[in-house]
Amino acid sequence: MKKTFSTFITGLVVCMLFSISAYAKEIKQLNLAVIPVAGSSSMEAMWRPVAKHLERDLGIKVNLKFVGDYAAVITGMQYKHIDIAYFGPESYVQAAARAKAQALVTELNDKGVPGYHGIIITKKSSNLTTLQSLKGKTWAFTDPNSTSGTLVPSVYLKKQGIDPQKYFSKVIYSGGHEASILSVKAGRLDAAATNDLDFQKGLGKGWKEDDFNVIWTSDLIVGAAIAAHGDLPQDLKQKIQQSLLALNDKKELLKAAKLGGFVAAKDSDYDAVRELVKAKGKK
């Protein structure tokens, strides 16, 4: 009887492992989406090499998807239209809560640090060099689900006793960091919240460092996450993570993609962002 039961359990485990592996083999393609931190042409140049790298490593077609806003990436994963996604820290936290997102890797900056800083910028030729000088001026957040473009500066403004809707003459959401930076450069906006990582990525292409004043810099924010839908087979998620970490040895690809590399991530790495969400007053 004991032998029969043991044989049954062994067979069950083998079947379970086989079914997981078989499920992975049945997946013919994966959809990779990225939050729109820049225009579609810039995002294509940055992320197409990553998608091709994943295809080669996984032996599965990887479709690169661009969407209009951060919420669309979260919703896409929630309804399983998106399998893998590049999220900002706050959008990852939202996706983990609503869409079973599971962080695989965290983005590194060009110094190998898994994080970046929020910044507030104004045009260099303006006299806007302090937060006080921005009273009555025009202001841009990026996206409601952006960390450095909305969450972090909102918490900072709240601590200063500032209500953006009352303090600034006009408040908009630009839709992305590139749009915010270019709008300030062109003088269409007086100030914008963005981050040093996306700012650096556009240097020499869309703008120069001396085009701007940086009037505030935040504390270090944990880096963006590449996450997979939690319902993907575990062995496939591990292969995706390993493939992304292998990019650290492909310096030319990282340079083309304007990425500093990746480090293995866990969900608790983003607990500090959850605290910021609470501090902002979100439910």
UniProtKB/TrEMBL annotation:
One of its GO terms (cellular component) is ATP-binding cassette (ABC) transporter complex. InterPro entries: PhnD, Phosphnate-bd. CDD domains: PBP2_PhnD_like. GO terms for biological process: organic phosphonate transport; transmembrane transport. Keywords: Signal. NCBIfam families: 3A0109s03R, PhnD. Belongs to the phosphate/phosphite/phosphonate binding protein family. This is Phosphate-import protein phnD. It comes from Helicobacter canis. The gene is phnD.
